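Quick illustration for those who missed Monday's session on complexes.
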Amino acid sequence: MIIAANLKTNFTRKETNKYLEELESFVSSKNITQEVLVFPAMSSLDDNDTSIVTGAQNAYATKEGAFTGEIGLVHLEEFCIKTILIGHSERRHILGETQAELVTKFNYYKDLGFKIVFCVGEPLEKREAGKNEMMEYISSQYKGIDTEYENLIIAYEPVWAIGTGLTPTLQDIEEIHTELKVKSSAPLLYGGSVKVTNAKEVLALKNVDGILVGSAALYTEHFCSMIEYAQELEGK
Ligand code: PEP
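Prediction with phosphoenolpyruvate bound:
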């Protein structure tokens, strides 16, 4: 399974390096064979010697150039980063990234062979509009994306569940994941208020191939417990 931490705008470089060292020590002491990914803040990317794979939370579809406030391929290459998160709801809804921009970014990093964690998920009004409208909305977020790209991971993250402590029911998660699996055979993660208290149940669901964790991942012990749950459920 894939257990990913989105550290968002948290942890300095020093704190991130300490976090990664702690994770590595846990992963090696427990012989963890699950895929662990960590997305640190941009300025916390570093040459770290740990075996934990780090990825970028965002980068512009460019090698370098005049794109104030953005980073490009050269900045990722400096730290041998080959993994990127694209389409997170905070980028779609707070930073205003459009589907067209996300597709451009997706294609750029796909052509470079990056592992791409591509996020989809509905805001509350779409969920409340009923199942058909909700699924249509989520489908629109797949438009233009090569759903069979070999290095693609999809994360289903209902916007209303991110950072709110609210989650869909386990049955809802399983049902939506089963429908989304028809659109792409890529590994499908669930994200949105996964905590140490519900991670095991979520990971145990059919068609859930892992989790993308925000706030709860900031607690190393909690994130390590989630990794261990995934290990216990290996071959579920
Ligand atoms: C996220 O930001 O991808 C996320 C899932 O956040 P949280 O776990 O805090 O809901």
